[in-house]
Amino acid sequence: MKYIDFHTHIFPEKIAEEALRRLSEHSGPYKPCTDGTARGLLESMERAGIEASVVANIATKPTQMWPIYEFCTEIKSTKLYPLVSFHPENSLSEVRQLIRKAKQSGIFGVKLHPMYQNFWIDEDRMFPFYKAVADEGMFLMFHTGYDIAFPGNEQAHVLRLKKVAERLPSLHIVSTHMGGWHQWQYLKELSELENLYTETSMTITETGPDRFLELLEEFPLERIFFGTDSPWTDQKEMVEAILGLPIETPKKEALLRENAIAFIKAYSN
């Protein structure tokens, strides 16, 4: 069985080394496990038995929106599924244009990070952007919960995410880090929101396997994807962590592959 990683990051080759150096200054115990390039990710995927990875990009400035789109079109393949990004300071008309072009290019999702882009996930000014994503039939991935680089920052708080999902049921949302990083006590509150999905990155490394197993029982399994946040954890080690859990083989297959395949197929039509 080959696997799907729903949460990875890479950078254009000319900036990858510097980007990782800067990010590593605030990444705590998590150090890069690849060189941050597409080639490095593909090599990691080969070692881990991963068939395809979703590549999350973040526009930290309004001027990065279109360069990120161009990067996405360059790397898009049967192995790499990139997500575009916009910045809250981009105009709504610009964002609509981006989303249309991305959809036409076979890109099916958008990634936003409240801390790096300086917005509150449930603030009113963001909802026209969210609706534009939903109207175009794309999904939105948010960084959710706390972030090791922004101690105590609550701009992406899980309960704020819940308000977004409730207010816009037509928007399919992928939250990261099993609902929200270090806010796992709220995961069960998200479980009945049928438009909300999540992925596993940087969770078992923090909770340990016993608490992770409990979390798997608190959210519908079919809406959980395997993710690593590569390069910040090693893909092979994270695959092995899931394979080592004392759960039935069909559940492992669902987590590591089948759930993501079904979701991606729905957005590829």
What does this protein look like?
This protein has 269 residues and is α/β, with parallel strands linked by helices. The chain has a single domain (3-268), classed as TIM Barrel. Helix content is 43%, strand content 13%. The protein contains twelve helices and eight strands. Strands 4-5-6-7-8 form a five-stranded parallel sheet. α7 (158-167) links the parallel β5 and β6 (173-175). The radius of gyration is 17 Å and the shape is globular. The two termini are 24 Å apart. The mean pLDDT is 98.
Entry keywords:
single chain; 269 residues; alpha/beta; 3-stranded parallel beta sheet; 43% helix; globular
- CATH topology assignment: TIM Barrel
CATH architectural type: Alpha-Beta Barrel
Q: What is the tally of helical segments? A: 12
Instruction: Look at the structure and name the CATH superfamily.
Output: Metal-dependent hydrolases
Shape: globular
Distance between the termini: 24 Å
Sequence-ordered SSE layout with sheet pairings:
Blueprint: E1 3-8, H1 13-24, H2 38-48, E2 50-56, H3 65-75, E3 80-83, H4 92-104, E4 109-112, H5 114-117, H6 127-135, E5 139-142, H7 158-167, E6 173-175, H8 187-190, E7 196-199, H9 204-207, H10 209-216, E8 224-225, H11 235-243, H12 249-268
Helix pairs in contact: 2-11, 4-6
